[in-house]
């Protein structure tokens, strides 16, 4: 069987790139400790937000994304935590597909109806961290945000 030289070239380049991507992900995972956001298969989707302190400076936040706000169980679109807090976000959606991005923490996770995503981070420095929706979810999308206040 004869393979067109251009097709052969494209397959070889594609294979090399695929291998490079897998190596880059493995390197980031094992050397830098970067964890890919995962779907929780044992956690049932929830319909209400919650903000729970599980230990000193350790929090679990159940985030329900809705048109057009993030329900985090505080009655406001913000949470306040002390610096050095480790926070685990459990993320789902009550209506359509949304997304959560916390640019300062390099966090980017989808909020999908019927699915729970999980991501964990530590807020070392005090300040105001913005959490924005990054998936177009309707006419109120651009105003869909929440704040994480990290205090001294
Ligand atoms: Cu929610 Cu865009």
Account of the protein in words:
With 152 residues, this protein is of the alpha+beta class. The chain folds into 2 domains: 1-34; 38-151, Cupredoxins -  blue copper proteins (Immunoglobulin-like, Sandwich). It has 1 helix and 11 strands, in the order αβββββββββββ. It has one helix at residues 5-30; strands at 38-40, 50-55, 58-66, 69-71, 78-82, 85-93, 98-102, 107-111, 116-123, 127-132, 145-151. Strands 1, 2, 3, 4, 6 and 9 form a 6-stranded mixed sheet that branches. A 3-stranded mixed sheet has the order 5-11-10, with no helix packed on it. β7 and β8 form a beta hairpin. Dinuclear copper ion binds at residues 65, 68, 98, 133, 135-137, 141, 144.
Write a concise keyword list for the protein shown above.
single chain, Immunoglobulin-like, 2 domains, six-stranded mixed sheet, alpha+beta, 1 helix, binds dinuclear copper ion, globular, three-stranded mixed sheet, 152 residues, 11 strands
Shape: globular
Total domains, how many? Answer: 2
Sheet bearing the most strands, described?
6 strands, mixed
Share of helix, binned: 10-25%
State the separation between the terminal residues, measured CA to CA. Answer: 69 Å
CATH homology superfamily of the largest domain: Cupredoxins -  blue copper proteins
Order of helices and strands: HEEEEEEEEEEE
């Amino acid at each position: 069987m004869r393979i067109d030289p251009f097709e052969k070239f494209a397959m070889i380049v594609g294979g090399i790139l695929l291998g490079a991507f897998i190596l880059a992900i493995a390197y980031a995972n094992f050397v830098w400790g970067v964890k890919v956001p995962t779907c929780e298969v044992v956690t049932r989707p929830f319909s209400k937000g919650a903000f729970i302190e599980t230990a000193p400076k350790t929090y679990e936040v159940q985030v329900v994304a809705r048109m057009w706000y993030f329900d985090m169980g505080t009655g406001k679109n913000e949470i306040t935590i002390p610096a050095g807090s480790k926070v685990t976000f459990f993320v789902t959606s009550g209506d359509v597909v949304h997304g959560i991005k916390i640019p300062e923490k390099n966090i980017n996770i989808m909020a999908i109806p019927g699915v729970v995503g999980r991501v964990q981070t530590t807020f070392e420095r005090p300040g105001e961290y913005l959490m924005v929706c990054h998936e177009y979810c309707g006419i109120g999308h651009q105003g869909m945000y929440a704040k994480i206040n990290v205090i001294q």
